[in-house]
Each structure stands twice: as C-alpha cells, then as structure tokens.
Design goal:
The structure holds two protein chains of two kinds. By secondary structure, chain A is an alpha/beta fold. Chain A has helices at about 65-70, 95-105, 120-130, 140-150, 155-160, 170-180, 200-215, 230-235, 250-255, 260-270, 310-315; strands at about 20-30, 35-50, 55, 80-85, 85-90, 105, 190, 220-225, 235-240, 245-250, 325, 330. The longest helix of chain A has 18 residues, at about 200-215. By secondary structure, chain B is α/β, with parallel strands linked by helices. The chains are: A alpha/beta, B alpha/beta. The complex binds adenosine-5'-triphosphate (ATP), iron/sulfur cluster and magnesium ion.
Chain lengths: ~350, ~350
C-alpha cells in the first residue's frame, strides 16, 4: 500500500521522504464498564513527509486530538500502526520509546495551563533538557536556552529569562511554549489548537513564527485545528476528519477551492469572513444538527444521516474508501460525480 | 430573508446612551483604568458590535451596562441611560426590578461551560428568574409558560427543560444560555463571545438563530467578540475598543467595505483575520501587546505599537472625531488623512 513508487492513499506531495505514516489506525475507548465502545479514531491512514505541514481539520469529537495523542505515543492504538523511519512506533519500548518522544514533540495551545507558575522562564525551558539528559553542564544548558529564545524572538534574552509565566503576554507565553518544544530539536511537531479563545493577532504572530522556524529547520508539522481558514494559510495539505476518519485530503488550495465531500463543503460554507453586506442574510446551512456520538457510528457512509445528497446506496453499501479524483485529491464520497 | 428595516438604523431612537463612562478596578497593585471615558449610542433594534483584543475592556463594558461591575470594579463617573432612565447610581433593588433581565440581559462569556451541573435546565431558568426578575413576572405559572415558549423559540424540544447540562451538546447548551437571557423578555441582550467556544458549523447555526430572534422579536444586541469576521456577519455598526478607550466606530460598510477602516489598530486587526476564499501568503499581526491599564501610555494608547506614530501621538491624546457621517475615529493620522481627502 505504501511502497515509495506507487501512490497510496493519503500520500504526501513528492517533496521530502516520508517520515511518518499512519496505517489503518484505530483507537477505541471503553465506557460504562465496557458496554459502550467509543471509536475515537476509526481507520485513519496518512503519510507525512519531511518539511511538510499537514492540517487535520474537523469539529470537536472528530478524533483530531486522539490522533495527536496517538502520534505522540501518549496513548496506544487499539490496532493499526505508526511507521517512523521503517519502525513501528507502537512497538517501541524503554529507551527507544524515549528517543521517539524526543523526536516527536507537541505544542500545547494553552501554554498557561501547561507551565508551572512557580518556574521562571529559564526553568520552564531547562526542564525538558533535564528530563532527556541533554547538556552536561548548567552553562551548556543556558547556552541552549538562549539560542532557542532567540529563535522565538524573545530578545534580549536576559530580559525574559528570570520572569515567571504570568509576567508575559499571551503571545509571549505561546512563544515560550514553542521554544520548549524546539529545544529538543524534534523532527515532527504536533500542534493541537482546540476551539480557540486566543486573539487573532496573537495567533497570526505564532503561526508566522512557527512557519519561519519550520522552513529554517525543515520540520514536519501536524497542525490540528477546527479552523479551516487558518489551515489554508498555514498548511501544505489538509485532511478533513469526520468521526475518526479522513473524508477528504488534498493540497490546501484544492480542498478549499474545489471541495468534493459534502462535509467539507458544509465546513467551508459555515465560515464567516470579514466582508460587508451579510448582516441581513441568513447563512444557508446544507447540513443539520451536530456530530453524532462516536459510540454509534452510522453504517455505510458515516456522514449519511446529515448529508443532503444521501441516497440508499450511501447507507446500504459498505463505507466508501478514500479514492483519488485526480492529482492526489482524495475523497470518500460515493456520489461525488453526481453532486 | 432580507432584513431591510435594520439596514439603516439611523432613523430609530437610541435605546441606550453611554456618556464618558469610566469604570476602574481598584486592585492592590493600583487602579486599572478598564473603561476610561467611553461614549456611544445603541439604537432600538440595532446590533452594535464591540470588538478588540483580549483585556481591552469588552466584558467590563457589558457588565457596566447592567450596573453589575465585577469586584473590585466600580463605575467612577459617566452616565448610562436606558430608555431615558439613568442607571448609574441606581440602587440594587431598583436595578433588579427595572433593569437587569427586565430590560437588559446578558449571555455571559463562557456561560455554556459553567452551567451548574446538578441543576436541570428548568431549575437553572427558575434561578435566573428568582435572582433577577421576580419583580417583573411575579407569577410562577406565567414563568413556566415563558420558559416553554422561549426554549421552543431557540429551537429546543420541550423535554430539554428536564435535562442536565452534561446531557446536552455544545450547541444545545448555548441555546439554553440564550433562552435564559431571552425568556424574561428584555429589549437589549449583551452577547459576550456567544460563539467563540463552538465548532464552525454550530457557530453558523447559532449566528442564524441570533439574527432570527432579532428579526422576529425586535431585539437589540451589544455583540461582543474578538473576531472581526463574526462582527461582519451580525453587526449593523461596530465599535472597536483598545485599552479601555474607543478607537473607531462605524457602520458595517464603513469598517468592512472596500474603503476599509481608518484607525491603524482596526486596520491591523482586520489584516490579521484569516480569509478563507482568498489565498494570502502572510497574515499580519500587531507586534507587542496591549498596555498595562494601571499606567497606560499617556496620549494615544496605541502609540507604542503603531506603525504610523509620530511625535504628536505620544504627546497629545487624539480626540474622537466624526470623519464622515456616522464614522468616528480617535487617531491623528486618520484625522489628517480624511482632511486631505476632503481638500
Ligand atoms: N475583576 C477584576 N479585577 C481586576 N481587574 C480586572 C477584573 N476584571 C477585568 N480586569 C481587568 O480589566 C481589563 C479589561 O478586562 P475585560 O475582562 O473587560 O477584557 P475583555 O476585553 O473582555 O477581554 P477578553 O477578550 O479576554 O474577554 C483587563 O486589564 C483585565 O485584566
Ligand atoms: S494617533 Fe498616532 S499613534 Fe495613535 S493610532 Fe493614530 S497614528 Fe497611531
Ligand atoms: Mg471578555
């Protein structure tokens, strides 16, 4: 399915080599003493190439955050594999698992909650070095801290080193969170942005910085967001997730300018833009209701109960697999030619 | 589909008048100048947007309009009249009977995630009634009827009244919160970030509901958010605040039309809002962060972050000036630009 010569589902653009591949990944959570099975991730496959930014876009409950945690090895999958440089990361244990966690880092989007308020910025940044036993002396570690602070533009470094997190603005805290990730020199960064309260200007500033660093260091990014407009600006490819599975995947321009799947179309239709003349209008929303529970995923196409185009084939036939409509733009909709 | 009568709210009467309002928080570190001399009108039937970065005083303004500042805040001076009646200095009992929920109610920021978990929706609504409005609607039977009418009105089935918050989805919880602001039939609802915590599709559903309620019930809104794209969708006029002061106020067309806003702050905010249908290679952002409101910059508060700042901007505070009909700006550069355009 994924030899380098043939294009498999979810394969990245032909830039760098594939550094991460998810194959038919599943993650079930058992609830109510095992009587309810929540299929948070339900057959997820994609590839990430070196230097690529892949956006995972979808509404809350679609399995984005679980995917991030699986890639981070914070939780183990129920089945399927995560291939990194030829190894199956789900099988790594002990020292190998620790080395893996160093190469794959996560940026927390609520940096305040994730920083010890009693720490100074220097301690916040030194902590990961101590955990991973990097830098033999205090002096060496301080040099690394200064370097990474310059990278995230917290200069002059001396002004910020001894501050506590609450003495920084939201944007500055976000930069320190990014620095904490970068200090371990990872290859892959998973950035999870939940439904977000942060100012747009602050967010733009962070994305700007992350993009510059990503280019500089040739990092690969998985950018998890509910906001498809930001994904357009920040990513190379967009994967749209619905109930634990990818329903559409392609370059960011393809997916947004020529969406195929009815769910992607609805997501795009729902987005507000800063243009005048809309106040008197109601937005036409083709799909009704909210994402159903991952404990009872509909048979056939999992989107069919909310889909305005669903016909009997959509629930009677087995679930549609991702299929290429041309030029690597994948979708999982049976009726795509007709709608 | 069109709501033509709301397109030009100019002919309507002001429902709310705010004049030179100052609300400060008296903290141990000093006096936080959270609202520092703000004036505006809100017309009957109008949606006025209030936008700005985190900490600029949006929620403080919302709470001030209920004369309900969060401690240690206090209205220091200025005036707020609702339907011609002054509420600054009004006693608590009268505020409860005449103002809060009777005329003005509020959808609090983050309320949908703070609903008391052990109460049913019915009990939550009854609490609101007891707390704010047992004066206006003394009959509990009538209240039950109002609760039913307005849960239906926001698109919820009757049985939701018997449900607990955790049994409801995010969108349903937000509908409950809106019903709670609505069912005692106020004229003005302050919506503080009512869609920020929701997914895009649910966000669009709730925005449609908010517009529909206004059209059908003739409500007015003060619509607070940090997202200009949402304001473009709902607000007839938009007020931009920066660091406790008004920076710009204009119609939807004046702010989001082709000419664009005039204040450098609004311009930057707009440029940092991502566009879905247009590809941009860079998003702008505003370097630095808003000032500390205990000792803000003495003249123009945006001066330390402004790309157009001149010596004058750090010396003299720019007054609020009407640069075209209905369009107010507090900026030296915008003032010069408009004089230049006129000459
Ligand atoms: N209870 C309080 N005590 C002291 N200071 C406060 C209090 N509430 C708000 N402030 C301060 O007043 C200023 C305005 O805060 P406010 O909550 O009104 O901002 P906001 O525009 O609503 O921000 P956000 O977008 O984050 O909700 C900020 O500097 C804030 O720190
Ligand atoms: S008054 Fe001066 S500093 Fe303030 S916004 Fe205008 S140009 Fe910038
Ligand atoms: Mg607020």
């Amino acid at each position: 399915m994924s030899s380098p010569e043939t294009k498999g589902p979810g394969e990245g653009p032909g830039r760098g080599e594939v550094i991460l591949e998810l194959r038919a990944l599943h993650k079930n959570f058992l609830m109510h003493r095992g009587r309810t099975v929540i299929k948070a991730v339900d057959g997820l496959s994609f590839q990430l190439r070196r230097g690529e930014i892949l956006g995972l876009v979808g509404e809350s409950g679609c399995g984005k955050t679980t995917t991030g945690k699986l890639v981070m090895k914070l939780i183990e999958p129920t089945s399927g594999s995560i291939i990194v440089n030829g190894d199956d990361a789900t099988r790594l244990r002990g020292a190998q698992a620790i080395a893996y966690r160093r190469r794959v880092q996560m940026v927390f989007q609520d940096p305040y909650a994730s920083m010890n308020p009693h720490f100074k910025i220097r301690d916040v940044l030194e902590e990961p070095l101590l955990i991973h036993r990097i830098g033999a002396t205090k002096l060496e570690r301080t040099a690394m801290i200064s370097e990474v602070m310059r990278r995230v533009k917290m200069v002059p470094v001396e002004d910020y080193m001894d501050r506590h997190p609450h003495m920084l603005s939201g944007g500055q805290r976000q930069r320190i969170a990014t620095a904490r990730t970068l200090i371990l020199r990872p290859e892959i960064i998973v950035a999870d942005e939940p439904v977000s309260m942060i100012d747009l200007s602050t967010r733009a500033e962070i994305l700007h910085l992350m993009k510059a660093i990503q280019r500089d260091m040739s990092l690969s990014f998985i950018y998890i967001t509910h906001d498809i407009s930001t994904a357009r600006f920040f990513t190379d490819r967009i994967a749209v997730m619905y109930l634990g599975r990818i329903v559409e995947l392609g370059s960011q321009d393809e997916v947004i300018d020529h969406p195929i799947h009815p769910y992607t179309r609805a997501l795009i239709e729902a987005v507000c833009e800063p243009v005048s003349g809309r106040v008197g209008l109601m937005r036409e929303l083709p799909i009704k209701g909210e994402v159903p529970s991952a404990a009872s995923i509909p048979a056939g196409c999992r989107f069919h109960p909310r889909c305005p185009y669903a016909k009997s084939e959509c629930w009677e036939l087995p679930e549609p697999e991702l299929e290429d409509s041309g030029a690597g733009h994948l979708h999982a909709c049976r009726r795509w030619r007709e709608i | 589909m069109m709501m033509s009568e709301t397109k030009n709210p100019g002919y309507k009467q002001p429902l709310l008048k705010v004049r030179d309002l100052r609300l400060h928080y008296f903290t141990s570190k000093g006096e936080v100048l959270a609202l520092d001399g703000v004036s505006f009108d809100l017309m009957a039937g109008e949606t006025l947007g209030l936008v700005g970065e985190s900490g600029c005083g949006k929620t403080t303004m919302g709470l001030a309009l209920l004369n309900m500042p969060s401690p240690p805040g206090r209205i220091v001076s200025g005036s707020i009249t609702i339907d011609g009646k002054e509420i600054v200095g009004m006693g608590d009992r009268e505020l409860r009977r005449e103002v809060r929920w009777a005329k003005v109610s509020m959808v609090f920021q983050g309320a949908m995630n703070c609903l008391t978990p052990v109460y049913t929706v019915r009990k939550l609504m009854l609490e609101t009634w007891q707390e704010h409005a047992s004066g206006k609607h003394p009959d509990p039977k009538a209240v039950e009827e109002l609760m039913l009418r307005y849960t239906r009105r926001v698109g919820l089935p009757d049985h939701v009244l018997g449900r607990y918050p955790h049994e409801l989805s995010g969108g349903m919880k937000q509908r409950v919160v809106i019903a709670m602001a609505l069912f005692l039939e106020p004229r003005l609802i302050i919506m503080d970030e009512p869609t920020t915590a929701l997914d895009v599709i649910v966000q669009a559903q709730i925005l449609n509901l908010i517009k529909e309620l206004r059209r059908d019930l003739g409500l007015s809104y003060l619509f607070i958010t940090h997202d200009l794209a949402t304001e473009a969708e709902v607000a007839d006029r938009i007020m931009v605040m920066y660091a406790g002061k008004m920076a710009e106020l204009g119609t939807n067309e004046q702010i989001f039309g082709s000419r664009g806003p005039r204040h450098p702050y609004t311009q930057k905010l707009l440029a940092s809002t991502p566009l879905l249908r247009k590809k941009v290679s860079e998003l702008a952002f505003i370097p630095g962060s808003p000032p500390d409101l205990i000792s803000p910059p003495p003249a123009c508060r945006f001066e330390p972050r402004c790309a157009f700042a001149k010596a004058k901007c750090g010396r003299l505070e720019p007054p609020v000036v009407e640069i075209e009909s209905g369009h107010q700006v507090a900026c030296w550069k915008a003032m010069e630009d408009s004089e230049y355009e006129l000459s």
